[in-house]
Amino acid sequence: MKELEERIKADGTVLSGDVLKVDQFLNHQVDPDLMFAIGQRFAQLFADNNITKIITVESSGIAPAIMTGLQLHVPVIFARKHKSLTLTDDLYTANVRSFTKQTDNQITISKKYLTSSDNVLIIDDFLANGQAVFGLLEIAKQAKFNVAGVGIVIEKSFQPGAQKIKDQGIRLESLAKIKSLADGQVTFMSAE
Amino acid sequence: MKELEERIKADGTVLSGDVLKVDQFLNHQVDPDLMFAIGQRFAQLFADNNITKIITVESSGIAPAIMTGLQLHVPVIFARKHKSLTLTDDLYTANVRSFTKQTDNQITISKKYLTSSDNVLIIDDFLANGQAVFGLLEIAKQAKFNVAGVGIVIEKSFQPGAQKIKDQGIRLESLAKIKSLADGQVTFMSAE
């Protein structure tokens, strides 16, 4: 997605340790018009898939997910992050490891809002090691709903998450694919 | 806002201790079309106020805030919640007490994204004791930006937050005002 790549080039910052900071438009300050365009693109890509629900993880996944839901006219569920839980009877839960923060979180979704007849699109802001997506896929297994695909705003293609998702036979659509952040420069994979 | 009140009546659940659960359409599962209508209403109410930025607090404030930003075409900043912080040089921080969870959090906004020339609309999903709004007003004092007003999706008018905001001379626009949750029933204030 050209507009997104240009915005990353203009307003993203490469930090040490292969970190791309995009808090100017995606995950702290958010550009609603760009999010709308992102939602439009995901909605086009999955227009023929009879999506019934969108799921994401709080907080940075919410803006792109809600804009996709607006255009597919389906509910959006954001999984909650918790340090740990004791009462989980009415919740689907999965563990998510954060490599950047070196912490484990549980993500949870209320059992009320997902059933085995749902056909779900997973949306997230970033894909690196894929821990958040694999947490949501673990919930998919528990709830027995179908995952129609995964939509990612920014994929760090040099990290293992993207390949691991594709290895499971799951459709992955990433709007910006980053080949490298070496020498403080953002290099994208060949254009879509 | 009629549509919102009807949705609260239909899909909200009153729990003990004056808790209104609206996780079917607002703060866990989210209805994007309703959020769009909410954003449209806030955008109408503040159309003549030359808003330059919208601020909210993660996570439940993000959906209504981003839909308002979409219609006012201004950036949305969501404050991050942290248990506590040591490095805060480049951050505005304020303390927020959660009465329901009996915990203290710090909320933070990067100093990069707010200046004294900004004219800011605060959006949040719920107003009860007003702690989140007062945290954002504390950041407004530090950053010296103007607060044009506060937009709330659901105000629990029987709790002190709404009056405390109005007592400071700040414009408050709440789309649903709940007079009482007594006996498990939602009673609204007189219609807008």
From TrEMBL, chains A, B:
Source species, domain of life: Bacteria
Gene Ontology annotations of biological process type: purine ribonucleoside salvage; xanthine metabolic process; XMP salvage
Gene3D superfamilies, sorted: 3.40.50.2020
Enzyme class: transferase
EC number: 2.4.2.22
Recorded GO MF terms: xanthine phosphoribosyltransferase activity
CDD domains xref list: PRTases_typeI
Catalytic activity entry: XMP + diphosphate = xanthine + 5-phospho-alpha-D-ribose 1-diphosphate
Family per record: Belongs to the purine/pyrimidine phosphoribosyltransferase family. Xpt subfamily.
Function statement: Converts the preformed base xanthine, a product of nucleic acid breakdown, to xanthosine 5'-monophosphate (XMP), so it can be reused for RNA or DNA synthesis.
The protein, known as: Xanthine phosphoribosyltransferase
Organism this protein belongs to: Paucilactobacillus hokkaidonensis JCM 18461
